[in-house]
Amino acid sequence: MKMQVTPTTRTAAFLALFAHAAAAAPTTIKASDFAGSATADVYPPSGTPVNSELFPPESKVGFPGPTPTGVEPFAIQTAKAYPYNDGNANQFPLVIPQPHGSDSASPRFDSSKYWGNLAPWYSLRSSDYGLPDASPLVPESCDITQVHLLYRHGARYPTSGAAPGTFAQKIVNATKTGLAVSGELAFLSDWTYKLGAELLTPFGRSQNFLLGVEYRQLYGHILNNFTAARTLPVFRTQSQDRMVKTAENFAAGFFGVGEYQDQVSIEILVETPGLNNSGAPYEICKNSNVASKGSIGSTVANRFAANVFNSTIARLQSQASGINFTSVDIIAMLQLCSYETHALGYSSFCSLFSEEDFLNYEYYFDLSFYYNNGPGSPVAAAQGKSYLDEFIARFTGEYPAANSALNQTFDNSTTFFPLNQSIYADATHEVVVLDTLVAFNLTALFKGPPLGLTGNRRQNSFVASKLVPFATHFTAQVLSCPALQPTKQIRFIINDAVIPIDESYPGCPVDPNGLCSFDHVVSVLQKRSAEIDFDYDCFANYTASAGVDYNGRAPRL
Length: 557
Ligand SMILES: *[C@@H]1O[C@H](CO)[C@@H](O)[C@H](O)[C@H]1NC(C)=O
Ligand SMILES: *[C@@H]1O[C@H](CO)[C@@H](O)[C@H](O)[C@H]1NC(C)=O
Ligand SMILES: *[C@@H]1O[C@H](CO)[C@@H](O)[C@H](O)[C@H]1NC(C)=O
Ligand SMILES: *[C@@H]1O[C@H](CO)[C@@H](O)[C@H](O)[C@H]1NC(C)=O
Ligand SMILES: *[C@@H]1O[C@H](CO)[C@@H](O)[C@H](O)[C@H]1NC(C)=O
Ligand SMILES: *[C@@H]1O[C@H](CO)[C@@H](O)[C@H](O)[C@H]1NC(C)=O
Ligand SMILES: *[C@@H]1O[C@H](CO)[C@@H](O)[C@H](O)[C@H]1NC(C)=O
Ligand SMILES: *[C@@H]1O[C@H](CO)[C@@H](O)[C@H](O)[C@H]1NC(C)=O
Ligand SMILES: *[C@@H]1O[C@H](CO)[C@@H](O)[C@H](O)[C@H]1NC(C)=O
Ligand SMILES: *[C@@H]1O[C@H](CO)[C@@H](O)[C@H](O)[C@H]1NC(C)=O
What we know:
single chain; alpha+beta; Rossmann fold; two-stranded antiparallel ribbon; 18 helices; 10 strands; 35% helix; binds 2-acetamido-2-deoxy-beta-D-glucopyranose; inositol hexakisphosphate 3-phosphatase activity; signal; 3-phytase; His_PPase_superfam; EC 3.1.3.8
């Protein structure tokens, strides 16, 4: 295939800059200070090939998934409070009211931290997982040489067929046969369902854009490697519309709107049933779609919910007739609180629920994710194996084998799967991020006994909203610290918390900064990959049940 070199306005801008600089300081700045210096801090140098033919856009790739749009947000008229920017950077410009039962004397309660995978991401601290002295900043006497990022799309509408739409239908039905609401529920008399499906919301766009801005600010310097090589990085995503938009918003934040098109190759891998794709392994892992294996978490989460909302149901029921609320409706209304806030900026559903309701809502998600895609799932490690193997490939410089959901057609060439980048960025779904953390054996994130099915939340370090919120991101830093350690080092970070690996990577020392020898970590990961049997876990007929820590792997018969 022919490389397309797209001349851009960069050259002109560069010349203009030079002309200006030369005029201002003719004796101190020479053309050679800019031109021909491969290591100059200008990314990308003019003339770097841009290859839009090999990396076609969404319109050419197809497979965008469903894309029903919702009603335009109108917070200026529908919100009960204005979104002043008073801090809370993780949720601006959303407005999140205080829960039911709180008064002005109650300490502020941020319910959005209890929304499981519907939470907006916020920074964790390394102390959350046992490294009180670690910072994501490069430790003193170290230099960073490489960064690997795996991140989730920002806030989206509900997926197709999710609980909120069914609840809306129930309201429509009840309205026809005589729904009467009062008090806290009065708003339901003229409430309508305004959400689309699947797509990123405006706030979701900002989360991925901001992540791009943040990562440019943190790691921009190591673009030098691409500058020196006169080559563009390949950042990857899936073909679903929100996934493409996620990668584009990230790239726009990282490189600039109107600039990223010429500064990064965005690789869009088709996501559809039956096709290999590391970012969507459930499309070929059969058992992940068998309820008794792939969604044992959903089952126990629903059972949990059926028992903890009775007093809330009674309170709301006393303000409505012509409808009978169930725990399924409560979960749907809690989700409407999350989704309407993300899509419309404000939701009247949020203040229906108490602090305790939000804690139960979080635990509902904790159960669901721990047993669907965490260590309690028999198919989590198998599904996370594709990214594990791709990371190992990038670590070792050797192309990965095909015994996972990865797509070898793309993973066998320097064009589509380069192994020498200083910066990697892959976008995916939250379930896959969690599967990947399990495949990486990062057991500090799941420390403690398996989650109790009726709610003993404090015995395990796993909290869904910390690991799988909108725009969650997992980062591997490769470092060189000659004054501390003779060999290359590596460490892992989740949403700004450095993860300790001394227990899960046998042979890694206890280290206050979460560091371990790169070569040793790679050998542990290779061992871990070898023990994950994709074919068995994804296709065999075994029996799995919630309540067990499987370390993400199917039980043997
Ligand atoms: C609403 O009514 C329709 C038509 O009777 C029915 O098919 C549907 O199941 C009802 N939906 C809900 C959520 O009650
Ligand atoms: C990576 O390797 C490819 C193929 O050898 C080369 O074209 C490219 O410039 C290299 N990229 C970097 C960032 O070193
Ligand atoms: C790999 O991906 C490409 C495009 O995304 C697709 O055409 C191909 O069928 C995939 N391979 C497999 C085995 O799924
Ligand atoms: C809550 O209500 C459900 C349905 O009526 C009932 O089966 C369950 O036992 C109740 N749970 C508690 C803890 O009261
Ligand atoms: C609600 O439940 C009661 C008691 O089971 C039943 O009599 C009534 O018809 C139900 N109402 C609706 C709207 O389903
Ligand atoms: C797709 O995945 C299956 C299962 O691991 C594997 O056997 C097959 O070789 C893969 N195909 C490609 C093109 O990667
Ligand atoms: C990469 O995969 C494609 C499709 O399976 C195959 O045709 C090609 O020969 C492979 N290239 C290498 C270098 O293995
Ligand atoms: C990037 O370049 C620096 C300086 O030349 C080098 O130390 C580092 O190893 C390079 N990183 C990669 C991933 O090649
Ligand atoms: C995974 O972590 C556990 C500790 O939580 C450890 O016992 C086990 O050896 C690790 N597995 C691998 C393959 O390193
Ligand atoms: C799986 O095993 C169970 C229990 O032995 C059996 O009832 C079921 O039919 C099997 N399912 C398949 C798809 O073979």
